[in-house]
Fold each of these.
Amino acid sequence: MRTSTIVARVAASLLALAVLAGCGGTEPAPEASGPIAFAMPPGTDEEDLLAQVQTVADSIATVTGREVEVQNPADYMAVVEAVRSGFVDVALMSPFSTALAYQNGSVEPLIVWEAEQEPASTCIVRADSEVRGVADMRGRQIAFVDPGSTTGYFMPKSLLATNGLTDGTDYTSTFAGGHDSALLAMLNGTVDMACSATQILPMFREAGLLREGTYRVVAETDPIPVGVSIVANVDLDDATRQAVITELPDILMADESLAPVFGGSTTYRTEPGQEVFEPLMRVAEQAGVNLEDMR
């Protein structure tokens, strides 16, 4: 094709665009109207937790006026990838997963809850175990929950690190895939210790997973610097985004049954910046975990 022909076609295209631009201005992009894909944290198999997460999804449907489809990715990093790639529009994410995803530009945090000042994780052994404290884990095995779990990995690993124990050198570890699965591995004798979110242990007791006389608490971690977040895909339409930011928090905080979902916290911040997640980065560094390696 000759150069003059190419130039002519480009000029014609630019002229057409100019004509369209002069006919009343640019029309606003239509608001999204299809279902919202909402992802909940993985390993949410406990009946009460499932009901609470469904209530969050229903609340999103209320404030946006759109149908909400709930998804349950296999692990914490799968939630991050689903939001980043656009398969999920809005997600409820753990603190460290949010920090990682935000640092990588994968998600936009819309709401973040402040953490309660109680131990984030509780580490448990069988009642007949010789383990009496964290130092006794040298040469033994622990069940973590998931590489992206705050209470099931980052906080317990930080606790072990501050007690001079390095994963792979002083003890071995495995990922169970869920909080209940980690506890079962400990109770069955597959591992020596399991650490789980302090806030959900009462549910496991009520469900009969943790029966009196079958286990002992040997350690508790520090509180989490930051609580859970509701995040969105960076390309989420503005109407939905604004509805979640401005209307959703009040609805969620008015429902006392949802307290365990947000760690009991009633204090939150909308549209948080990078500085909010800096304390999590420091904990990760202390634990010897490189967040970039978890992409």
Amino acid sequence: MRCTTCRSRSCATGTRSSRIRYVGVCDDDISLYKGDNRSWPLPKSIVGHEFSGEIEDLGELAYHAGFRIGDAVSGYAWNFCGACRYCKSGLEDHCRNAACISVLAEHVVLNMRQIQKLRPGVPLEHGIFTDAIGYCLYNGLKDRGIAVDAHVMIFGCNTFSLILLQLIKLFSGATVSIAEKDERKLELARTLGADHAFSSEVTTVLRNTAGITKDHGYDHIFEMSRDPKMLGLTGTIAAVRGDIRYSYLYGYTTSNDVNLMELYMKEVTLSPFFLVPYSLPRAVSVIPRLALQPLITDIYPLSEVSRAYHAQESGASIRNIIRL
């Protein structure tokens, strides 16, 4: 990956030009960075979609909407058309004409619907988590009905799962277990509120499930490790009428060992995460209530963008950030 100079464009009436300050290196970007479309099949996708910055120019409608030059902002790099059947029914995440603009640039012009002002006092580097927070709020908590006495299992310690962990503890108070092979990441999960954090080795997961849930199983399971073996284990540890949600990208050619009979006998629901429809205001409002600094592994200058992506690909990082 190399840096080049491009000519900037002026703002139309409903758009704003933002001076990008920070860009997050999302795990979803890695396959695009490597040119592997088998793992990320969506069209019109491009590397770099988590960002924060400041407004440096704006159109008339954006001004009347309350935005001002110098405002600290974050938002979504995804732009939904607003006109197709899915957009009109509140399912923008399935928009047939969705496109993603790369924010790996010092200046970008975005539709005002893609931007939200950050709350006063929120560090700009925390603004890059807006996309991940919205994703977890919608896919993790919307219509989940996670009761205070529920048992929740999360597989994997990464940006999304550690944000989801905090949101569940914040809004439901349920008992949360998290399984991961990296002990250093498990310790971070404990500091962020996990009630139980242990190795994702199969026998360890089964033993802890029996003890923690008294053999009833987990009411809600979130597979966020990107490991098909963990997805295959979910049916075994799910409670009767439990709920399994799987996230991340497995690719078209990935197989798994999900036991459909186990799901049938327990009446377990299995459903995926996907892109999130418009939820910017709520996502931005939650930022001050989350511990986000511990999720930032390193901050790289733009000149070291390739190094940042290689570090994220290694699996040792939670979230690397590029400073522009």
Amino acid sequence: MNSAFENENAFIPDIRVNSVNHSMLKLEKPWSYCVDVDKVILLYILLEGTAWLHTPDNPPTKILPGTVVAFTRPQVHYWTTSSEEVKQSALKKPTFTDQTSIDLFDFNKLGDNEAESPLFYIGISPDTVNLVPDIIAPLVIIPVEERKNIPGLWSLLSMLSRQDIRDMDVGEIIGKRLVEALIALLTTYSLRKTSPFMAQQAACNDHRIRRVLSALHAELDKNWSLEELAQLATMSRSGLSDRFRQLVGDTPINYLNRLRMQRATSLLRSSTMPINQIAWVVGYQSGPAFNKAFVKKMGMTPGTYREKSRSGNIDVIEKDK
């Protein structure tokens, strides 16, 4: 039996959550709420009402009851009750109401989207080890209709909400492991959405090739040589090339170049990082070298790609596969 997620954990980091806070947030009109924290907000789940999410590099997004919104890294964002531009004069800091001592709710029941004051459940992790890598989008939105595409997500959420489980969870061991499983599911879902070619190749079950894949993902900016990768895999250079191509569909160096482009496009879409800095982060020693490689792969300069992606006018397929 083949699962849509079978063996796709090749690129999922060994995330460890040291603690989890369960909170609630209610939005009151006409205020806009600015969330600017250095903690990782693992997920929001809108329970009732309709809210609008504003992030610096994206247009306002309408959020309906049952939708999951997950941030893979700290990011300033705003919640409002309309799609109108956020007004600085109406900004308010949110008050997260602690929910550790009372029963939560049934995540499978959808609330009234006409409720006047949108109400969220929020899971916050003050301390998380091995955050999701930059290749994964910083924001993941899962509408209700996508539930069927993430097996086990809603079961895990329901377990988190059960008071009887939390009562017996001395030291929060169960809760922390459930949250780690949630992060793994969300990471895999995002990977499949934003990087199909990586998700397909993640099914590799040869431990030698998986070792190479893990190294490439962990040190994307390193100037890898085929010789170094062969030593890592304890194989000859020709043996590694043949086996890698058989299982992954490309040579190790070509795969690395594609991975770099994938991360570059993600950073161009979701960050304000200068292009020269992105070039360095993804392993290019100069801006011109990055620009040349990007044009060859994407058919446009990094600056043009960033401009088009922010305006929602991007529909690009790699030219050189």
Amino acid sequence: MGIAPRNPRKKAFAAGLWKATALAAPLAVAAAAPAAYAQDSGEALFQQRCAQCHTIGKGRLVGPDLKGITSQRSADWLHRFISHPQQVAQSGDAGAKSLLAEYKIPMPDQDISSGQIDAILHYVASAGGAPVGSAASNAQSPANVNNPAPAAPTFSARAADAGARLFTGETRFANGAVACIACHSVSDPAVPFGGGRLAVDLTGIFGQLGAGGINAMLSSPAFPPMIAAYGNHPLTSAEIADLTAFLQRASAQSSAATPSNRSSEILLGGGAVGLVLFLFLLNLVWRERKTEHTKRDIHARQISTF
């Protein structure tokens, strides 16, 4: 007895269902992929570009806490500010100027594409629970959002002294990084001549950034000069802790008394004393100079013989 042939209609229906499933599955994956990719790439970009100076809901660091920023500012403003923050501030934008006035340290320009900025903003919005670009034109600036810095930890005097030696270069960094004093100055008895003038004075930096901000800046430098100096010579966690302790001490001393960074006065005073000594020695030498021609006596004797 032979096997009855299959129903041609059922066979065609099964074949059509299989083809539809085979086509729909890749389309569904493709539709879900962009959102997942944007989320992943946005988080990676945030960690690479932003996390050194900003948090999302964990308080301020070098810059403001970004929680809710996408609902406080329009997407267009955020794009312009992230790409060229100093240019926006120089244009007279009130929000950018207030940020610079509060946080003191200007944000460097970011060499990233518009798509990457979108990815970062979507990540910030999803992490902070706010939609992107829902702000009114007069939205509150993040500088005015009440995100206080966490309480400062207490460091030992021994750690502060160790940090001072690292700052001045008396103790070398483990990975060969350049000493902070090459570019920065600070008012502290351990730094009698203040320090360098190539970058900002760090006397009150602890009061501005706190321990978390300093740790973020030193562990993952975001500014081009610091990247060049420390990118291949990272600081150890112990070195960062000692430098933080030193900067905390300097900040506390500056708030308790008028800052006493007198390097300029010392140099000017030393120059003035040196000039006086030079003129005094020059006068002594000048008084011993010959005031008459060396052959005048010979000439006088010759004349007297006539």
